[in-house]
Structures are given as structure tokens and as C-alpha cells.
Specification:
about 120 residues; alpha+beta; Alpha-Beta Plaits; 5 strands; about 35% helix; globular
Length: about 120
């Protein structure tokens, strides 16, 4: 059995959780902070690193990145200390090559169980 990889576009999916005194942080505010931190730390656009926020429920989420940018994406997540002026702490849960395995093995919460992985 052989596995076909489409070019160098392998992806990694990073599951993370957010600890904060505030519940249900907004996805748009989190995306804005990720974009800001990416420019500040790496002097790059998120798109250049293949970084995209796939899912976010206010407390947990999934960030996609290029496989060779995995460590930088984790560093980026951990660099976020505030979202919309609210103090937060971000911990990574796990990293996987597929959304489905990330959710099934490491992120057992209902909102992400029926994620469309196509």
C-alpha cells in the first residue's frame, strides 16, 4: 500500500484549549490576535505559514498549519496572552495530520465530533 502526498502541502492540525476568566471568547477576536502575533513574531502573514483557524468554540479550537511550520504555530499560539483585552492562557492539547484523528483521539467534545473533514 502506498500513500500519495500532494506536493509539499502536508498539513498539521493543532488542538488547543484556552483558560480565561471569561467564557465564550469570540472567534473573530481570536483570529485578529493570531494575525497580529504572526506579524509581530515572524514578520509574516498567516497565509505564508499556512496558518488558519479551523474551529473555535470559545474555549477550545483547532489551528491548521503547514507541516514544517508546526513548531512555529505552537509558539504562535502560546504567544497569545490577551484576546480583546482579556487575559488568556493557551495550552496545546495535541497535534495530528488529520482533523478526524485529532478530534477522535484527543478532543472529546460534542461540537467538534461532527466536523466535515473534506
Amino acid at each position: 500500500m502506498s500513500i500519495i502526498v500532494k506536493g509539499n502541502k502536508r498539513q498539521r492540525y493543532i488542538g488547543f484549549s484556552i483558560t480565561s476568566d471569561f467564557q465564550n471568547l469570540l472567534k473573530s477576536a481570536f483570529q485578529k490576535e493570531i494575525i497580529h502575533q504572526c506579524k509581530l513574531i515572524f514578520d509574516k502573514e498567516c497565509k505564508e505559514m499556512g496558518i488558519k483557524l479551523i474551529k473555535f468554540n470559545g474555549n477550545q479550537g483547532i489551528l491548521k498549519c503547514n507541516h514544517f511550520e508546526k513548531e512555529n504555530a505552537i509558539k504562535l499560539l502560546k504567544s497569545v496572552k490577551k484576546i480583546a483585552s482579556k487575559k488568556v492562557k493557551i495550552d496545546t492539547i495535541a497535534t495530528s495530520g488529520t482533523i478526524k484523528s485529532l478530534i477522535n483521539k484527543h478532543m472529546n467534545f460534542e461540537e467538534f465530533e461532527n466536523v466535515n473533514t473534506s
